[in-house]
Amino acid sequence: MDEGLVESTVVNTRAGTVEACRRAKLALPSGGQISQMWVKEGERVKQGQKLLELWNRDLSAQAELARRQLTTAQQQQRQVCILAENAEEEAKRMEALATKGFVSEQKVEDAQAQARAQYAACDAARADVKRAQSQISVASAGLERTLLIAPFDGIVAQVTGEVGEFTTPSPPGIPTPPAVDLIDDSCLYVTAPMDEIDAPKIKPGMPARIALDALPGKKFAGSVRRVAPYVTEIEKQARTVDVEVTFSNPDEVPKNLLAGYSADAEIVLESRDKVLRVPTQAIQDGNKVLVLPANGQKLQEKTFTPGLANWAYTEVLQGLSKGERVVSSFENEAIKPGAIAKSKGE
User: Fold this and answer.
1) Domain 7-22+181-271: which topology?
2) pLDDT tens digits, residue range 62-93?
3) How crowded is residue 332: how many other Cβ atoms within 10 Å of its Cβ?
4) Interior CA angle at 179 toward 177 and 181, to 5°?
5) CB of 316 within 8 A of CB of 277?
6) What is the DSSP letter of 102?
7) How far is 29 from 25, CA to CA, in rounded Å?
8) Is the dihedral of CA 9, 13, 14, 17 positive or negative?
9) pLDDT one-digit tens code per residue, 264-278
10) H or E element at residue 211
């Protein structure tokens, strides 16, 4: 026995999965015929880049018509408002002439009414300009519904459809393949199902170790990011709680690590260093171990008080001493209390 690190850990009950922090299964809000496919599977794209475009010549024509109508409305507004300003000046001149008795009050009233009418026409022209601007917004929105734009930087995992084919959005309750499956592989984490018995012990921020089937022999430092607030029930399997574990050192993660890889997460609930420990495989029922005394060859049975434990080591609180030799293999049925034994190498 020696002193060292002992940890209390839990691991997932079945294989976990490497997930991307952002993954969007993109589809257009309206259906139509694909006229342009701007990307292909495996291609990297930037945020705002066009991915797919539907046939939209009719909508483009409507947008152009709306822009021309706006230009016409702006010219008409300018014309009508100039006339309104001129009518106001004319009304002022009439008022000046009326004070000198050169024109009648009726003339003044007619000029003032004409000015008010022209200003009303000017306000109507301004409203017509705003209406034309709204028509452009409507036409632009229609065009946007035919364009699929990348919401973030990433890699195209899947493309569904070819140029000339028709694509339709998913009806309620009937899932259909996305037009483009986009993955942001710059940020990855592991989601691992933990047994419902272990889940209450797990808290965000706890350290963890991540192992990947695709990279045997390697382990990556991690940290618990989230514990799901519900239990997942799968038929014929134990009920589990999904736990999300992030990589503590993203720079150490291989560039070829793919979303969807299987992974395991070992979460450290508690750890104690420089404590007396015994190999867990040496412990028998009732917290008993077989000890080979330093001054004898007959095995003695001792009972000890355990502390933290995992599959490798168990902490010894009392009952055993540092340096005692314990039996860690029981392949031979003759290994029992009182049996004559010696240490390997003697």
Assistant:
1) Elongation Factor Tu (Ef-tu); domain 3 (2.40.30)
2) 999 999 999 999 999 999 999 999 999 999 99
3) 10
4) 80
5) yes
6) S
7) 13
8) negative
9) 999 999 999 999 999
10) strand 207-212
- Cβ-based burial of 333 (10 A; exposed 0-12, middle 13-18, buried ≥19): exposed
Q: Count the residues in the chain.
A: 346
- End-to-end CA, the chain: 17
Domain ranges of the chain: 7-22+181-271, 28-55+154-178, 57-144
**Ranges in the chain, pLDDT < 70:** 171, 173, 235, 296, 343-346
Residue 90: both structure tokens together: 């004319």
Q: What residue has token string 């200003």?
A: 119
The one-letter amino acid at 100: K
Q: Answer for the pair 236, 178: CB distance below 8 angstroms, yes or no.
A: no
CA atoms of 23 and 322, how far apart (whole Å): 53
Nearest to 157 by CA among 132, 179, 175, 190: 179
Task: Note the pTM of the prediction, 2 decimals.
Answer: 0.67
- Residue 231, amino acid: V
User: Tell me, what DSSP letter sits at residue 252?
Assistant: G
- CB of 179 closer than 8 Å to CB of 159: yes
Q: What angle do CA 161, 164, 168 make, to 5 degrees?
A: 55
In terms of Cα–Cα distance, which of 333, 299, 271 is closest to 9?
A: 271
**Residue among 279, 225, 195 nearest 1 (CA):** 279
Residue type, 29: P
Neighbours of 136 (CB within 10 A): 17
* C-alpha dist (Å) from residue 288 to 6, 291, 293, 327: 19, 10, 15, 11
